[in-house]
Amino acid sequence: MLEKKFKKPPWQKPAPVRDKPVSSDYPFYNSHKWRKHSLARRKRHPTCECSACRVSDDPLDATMTDHIIPIRIGGSKFDERNLQSMNKLKCHQIKRQKESQGLYEAHVYNENSEKVSARKFNEGVRGSISYS
């Protein structure tokens, strides 16, 4: 008798092999707590908050939550002052590219919507400066 070969259902197929190694931040960004926090932030701030979209008449929709000061260099994970809603495909890619080239300096906005260096913020010139 001939055996029939059946296709395995999708839930029984092995997971695809990743070409890239998983980053050390992977568990954090896939945690329930972060996903819930990120979604809530994007509901409160639905448009991109990058410097280009802030001055634009037609800002892009936010598709992710970004840490202004990256966690790997000491930025807070859940502090609202260190988070900004961004468009992942355009604005966040530009920011990451500038970071990797050393051209991006994290900044915050004060109550007058003036850009202030995050380095000054971290050096103790805190006053009434707040992230946005």
Description:
The chain is of the alpha+beta class. It has a domain of 72 residues. Helices cover 31% and strands 11% of the residues. Strands 1-2 form a two-stranded antiparallel ribbon. It has a two-stranded antiparallel sheet with strand order 3-4. A hairpin with a 5-residue loop joins strand 3 and strand 4. It is elongated, with a radius of gyration of 20 Å. It starts with 25 loop residues before the first helix and ends in a 10-residue tail after the last helix.
Produce the secondary structure layout:
Elements lengths: L25 H4 L2 H13 L6 H5 L8 E4 L15 E4 L1 H14 L5 E3 L5 E3 H5 L10
Antiparallel strand pairs: 1-2, 3-4
Write a short abstract of this structure:
The protein is α+β, with helices and mostly antiparallel strands. The chain has helices at about 25-30, 30-45, 50-55, 90-100, 120, and strands at about 65, 85, 105-110, 115.
